[in-house]
User: Fold Tripartite-type tricarboxylate transporter receptor subunit TctC from Cytobacillus oceanisediminis.
Amino acid sequence: MKTFKSLAILTAAASIFLGGCGSGGSNGAANESASENFPEEPIKIIVPFAAGGSATTTARLLAEYSEEPMGESIVIENREGGGGTIGQQYVSTAEPDGHTLLLATTSIVTSPIFNETAFTHEDFDPILQVVSDVSYLYVNTDAPYDDIDSFIEYAKENPGKVTIATSGAQASDTIAAKEFIEAAGIDATVIPYDGAAPGVASVAGGHDSAAMSSFGESEGQVQAGKIKPILVFSENKSTKYPDVPTSYEKGYEISDESWRGVVAPAGTDPEIIKYLQDAFKAGFDNPEFKEKMENQGMDPIYKDSKEFKQSIDNVYKRFSENM
Assistant:
């Protein structure tokens, strides 16, 4: 699978031939580009969060099924701290040779917007997206509303009483919740928690009226019969809850997804980006990878480097406009 290395051999051979013909190309082999020998060492994927979370799981499973097509071993390293900024900063300043990569989340965009960092999302070159976890609106199963229409009706009849829990003040689901409140014309309050789990627990306990959360973060409480989803913030129907209406079906053009993917330091050779994309795509396409991801409550969604860049740019635009 060492496509570039094979190309380097052909290049060297051609250079020797041309040199013999007096073309002055005898140094061609010495001048071959770094991309022609890629990869030259194990690939390292930095996960900027503590081990054990969904980001680490994503990186480890992707590495497991991409090593063979990559033609080199793939090492996962957790560099947590600063809400992900320590690991992100490390990769943003790494040598752009394709050997040090980052497991990226939306925080590569939001952290520089809300905090002082030495990097922005433009310091990374996207390779591919592998996960898209959409947000759902969950309510308590014993609440006086059992679908999105009755939820909105209740909120209008009880102005100021409804609360919607989210995963953090700077999280995308907070912006989505605020956009939904405005679009629905209701008087409700967004309650940001430190992560999705506390908000889900609050709704399960009957404290908050609703919670924005992903399938993976909430399914335990759904299976326990404590909460249920009434809306998915997406243009597309949910494969997890096919009977739950989408925000677009209800006339609210609001979507919210938490994506994960792989990026490289800015300035990485486009040929190396393509090689990495193809190798990781082969791992992504392995049925066992998709099955294990789905068993972890994650939706494997592929986007190539250009499509992934568009997703990143969309997050930047959305958060910048909601500052």
Notes: The chain has two domains: 40-133+257-322, 136-232. The two ends are 46 Å apart (CA to CA).
